[in-house]
Design goal:
The protein is an alpha+beta fold and 334 residues long. It folds into three domains: 63 residues; 66 residues; 155 residues, Histidine kinase-like ATPase, C-terminal domain (Heat Shock Protein 90), CATH 3.30.565.10. The protein has ten helices and seven strands. The strands form two sheets. Strands 2-4-5-7-6 form a five-stranded mixed β-sheet, covered by helices on one side. Strands 1-3 form a two-stranded antiparallel sheet. Helix 2 packs antiparallel against helix 3 and helix 6 crosses helix 8. The longest helix has 54 residues.
Length: 334
């Protein structure tokens, strides 16, 4: 800030130094003016001027220091009060711009809330005819047609479910209810819901649950497992998916292992990024690039860590590492 201040005041400093130099030059060429006295006066003037600069530096830079360290969070309380007329102009301009931005942000937030509510309402409305459609499909006698229709129905159902949870994730902290959850029952239900898709692709499940209960939010945990299962089913064919739960270092581990096409090593760091789809099968229109991203987002407030290990052409293993029980004390009060 000192360097910036000197640069800002360089014209005044140069003018002062020029005048002092001019006085010395005049006294040097004019024998009637005592040179040593003038040099002494100039020396005193320089000292006074330096002291003046130091005092003015602290006084004039307080406002600009506070502006420089301002976090641009629309909170103006951290900015020092303006003193000079120019500082008042800047303060008024920043205040007006901030108030305008607050109004825009408030309007945008209200629009987003309205859009979210309308979309959630639409999703719930769509679920009614979707449920009726499933009942009609179940009454069909043609096995092949019934299987194909159930598969397409399931795709629509999963996309709607994904969209519903995507809109709720920003407010997930308000929706959490941490309780002891029977993870075996939860996994079994998710497998049953995906059964028609698995039959069509010739996929089976091998479930081993050494740990049957975890402390978590059942609804959001089911959503995370659903995304991992659908990802494994989507990229597997005529093979089993192994699901295991076991204890490790006072934590519960859940593994979902498939023997599908695997993930390219260069894609592994990006698979949880929003909208990312495989570079190996980039023309795959069925992939939305949202499932694993949403699973990661939902896992964070649940304090669940998701790891992935994969080998191209061999398969992929997703691992959920649940937190220790005492890690939930600050959000569950248990």
């Amino acid at each position: 800030m000192i360097q910036k201040y000197l640069i800002e005041r360089r014209s005044w400093i140069i003018l002062f130094l020029f005048l002092q130099f001019l006085i010395i030059v005049v006294s040097y060429f004019d024998p009637t003016i005592p040179l040593m006295s003038i040099v002494y006066i100039v020396f005193i003037s320089m000292i006074i001027f330096i002291i003046f600069l130091i005092i003015r530096y602290n006084k004039e830079t307080n406002f600009y220091k506070s502006v420089e360290t301002w976090e641009n969070n629309l909170d103006l309380t951290s900015i020092s009060n303006a003193e000079s007329p120019f500082e008042v102009i800047i303060e008024n301009s920043v205040t007006n711009q901030t108030e305008w931005l607050k109004q825009i942000a408030s309007h945008n937030l209200m629009s987003l809330e309205q859009e979210k509510d309308e979309l959630l309402s639409w999703i719930h409305e769509v679920k009614t005819p979707l449920t009726a459609m499933r009942l009609m499909i179940d009454r069909l006698d043609n096995g092949t047609m019934k299987s194909n229709l159930i598969y397409e129905w399931l795709r629509i159902h999963l996309l709607l479910d994904q969209q519903l949870h995507q809109k709720r994730i920003p407010f997930i902290e308000n929706d959490l209810y941490i309780e002891v959850t029977d993870i075996k029952v939860l996994i079994t239900k998710e497998i049953k819901d995906l059964q028609s898709w698995c039959i069509q692709k010739g996929i089976g499940f091998d479930l081993h649950t050494e740990v049957k209960e975890v402390l978590s939010d059942a609804k959001w945990l089911a959503f995370i497992i659903r995304q991992l299962l659908t990802n494994s089913i989507k990229y597997s064919e005529a093979s089993d998916i192994i699901i295991k739960t076991y204890p490790k270092n006072e934590q519960t581990i859940l593994e979902v292992e498939d023997f599908g096409r695997g993930i390219d090593p260069k894609d592994l760091p990006r698979i949880f990024d929003k909208g990312f789809t495989s570079t190996a099968k980039h023309q795959d229109n069925a992939a939305t690039g949202m499932g694993l991203y949403l699973a990661k987002k939902a896992a964070k407030p649940l304090l669940i860590k998701i790891d992935v290990h994969s080998k191209l052409g061999v398969g992929t293993t997703f691992t959920l590492i649940f937190p220790k029980r005492n890690q939930f004390l600050h959000i569950s009060g248990m």
